[in-house]
Fold this sequence. Notes:
This protein has 15 helices and no strands.
Amino acid sequence: MPSQIETQANRTTVQPPDVCATASAPKAQRISALDFTKGALVLIMVLYHWINYFIGPQWEYYRYLRFLTPSFIFITGFMISNIYLSKYDAADRRLPKRLFTRGLKLMAVFVVLNVARTFVLPVLGSGVVRINPLTLGNIFTVFVSGNLPVVGGKLASFTILVPISYVLMFCGALMLPYRCYKYTFHAVCALLLLSILILGIIDAESSYLELVSIGMLGVLAGFKPISAINDFVRHPYALAFAYVCYTIAISIWNVPFVLQLIGVPLSVIVIYLVGLSGSEAGRIRREVVLLGKYSLFGYISQMAIIQVLSASLHHLNFGLEVLGTSFFAAFALTIIGVEVVDRARARAISVDRLYKAVFA
């Protein structure tokens, strides 16, 4: 008998678009293992940012966490094809509008959060010298190239929202030609990868272009039914071998874009397998799944929490006591924040509407 996840998966299978169709598809069910994957990524991101702010950019093992940001972009693309296209028919005019509007919202959230950051952190006396973000060069870096430092960058925060926004808006625009040509996303993904190759030849790069390309790979992966993906990931020994090979490769060559193209889907699949295999009744799993349902809010809140903790404690010696306390506080406050929002939405219509206005 098929599992509950597989039963849900069969209802979210994406078929090639019928250009003459106008009716919307049935509403897609949530995929518990996918929510678990997003929640686990948020928790690993808490660790990543805590190390960034409390250990510093000199930590030598960042390469093993470089899959994090691209993984969120990959899942964004995956959800566009696997989730959104099960809610809306490809010919439904509401779909590109929905994607484009959501992308604009995220860009607005990014701007508002960074404006707030420039006022709040100095009040806390963080002692960090701020860079003027309004020069043309810095605006280009933040919104076009994305070539910020991997760690320790103070030019902008919450920068993951920018490529997610671009993926959503770009896919919204691509839905128009996709109505008539079902390989639109395949062709665009190939063009993006070719562009990155050309930039590499002339010794140039664009982090956002690379992230949007990974988002397009997520879109292509999302065209596969969840049931087929579930069958594919149920090969733990093969996945373990592939991940060991990937880990050895990045230990030798760091994490060039070519290895990201392999490592990001592989890392997501490994976490997804853990979510697929776990007991539905486990308390920890339920918390991780809930965090996955609020992954965007969870990401923003943990980033804000860690910045406030770092700014508030910067005058102290980061000994074991401070490090341990800040580490526990970062995880606990992120989880508590998600719990509070979830319960508040259930009890107050106004909170639910506000949440949907910002994040939905």
